[in-house]
Design goal:
Blueprint: H1 3-24, H2 33-46, H3 56-60, H4 68-73
Helix pairs in contact: 1-2
Amino acid sequence: MHPSRTAGVALTALALCGYGIGAVAAYPGRWLTIPGVMVGVSLVVMGDGPPGRRGRADRANTGTPTSPAREDRDGGDAP
C-alpha cells in the first residue's frame, strides 16, 4: 500500500472517531474532524498515483509503446 493511501486511511478513521465522540460530547477543536475526513478521503483516492498508472490493463502492459518514428528506424512498416 502506498504511504499516502495509508495516511489517508488512518486520517479518515481518526477523524470519524473524533466526529463520533464530538456528536456525544462537545470538545474544543471538534470542527477539525470534517476537514480531516475530507483530506483523508482525498489521500485515499489519490494514493495510487497518476491515473495513467492504475488499472488492470496498465499492469498487464509491461512493454513501452512504440512511436511511428521508431518503427521506421527499426525496419517496421515503413516503405
